[in-house]
Amino acid sequence: MAEAGPHTPERPLLDVLDRVLAKGIVILYDADVSVAGLRVIEISGRTMMMSLETYMKMTEPKPTDRESSEALISAADAYLSRLPGHSPHLSG
């Protein structure tokens, strides 16, 4: 598949996704299901989406560059180890 050029519809979607991962986004939602005026189901939540690198930049206390790199590798290794057929060894 050819890479999206500057005038294709796919480009704005990629720009939005890049910005969301770089800056982060928080989505708050509330949903109610009522029957005959009686609330049957109520769902409330908050979803945060950002890259792992952005998350690491937002955490306190601010880690040093070496600690940040090690934490990023460790978090990626932990995530990948949960995938089927993956043997973890990114950090070593």
Structural write-up:
- The protein is an alpha+beta fold and 92 residues long.
- It folds into two domains: 8-50, no CATH class; 51-92, no CATH class.
- The chain contains three helices and two strands; from the N terminus they run H-E-E-H-H.
- The protein has a two-stranded antiparallel ribbon with strand order 1-2.
- Strand 1 and strand 2 form a beta hairpin.
- The longest helix is centred in the C-terminal third of the chain and has 17 residues, at 65-81.
- It is elongated.
- The mean pLDDT is 76.
Q: What is the count of distinct domains?
A: 2
Count of beta strands: 2
Beta content comes to 25-35%
Structural class: alpha+beta
Helix content: 40-55%
Strand order of the largest sheet: 1-2
Short description:
The mean pLDDT is 76. The protein is built from 3 helices and 2 strands, in the order αββαα. It has helices spanning 10-23, 52-58, 65-81; strands spanning 25-35, 38-49.
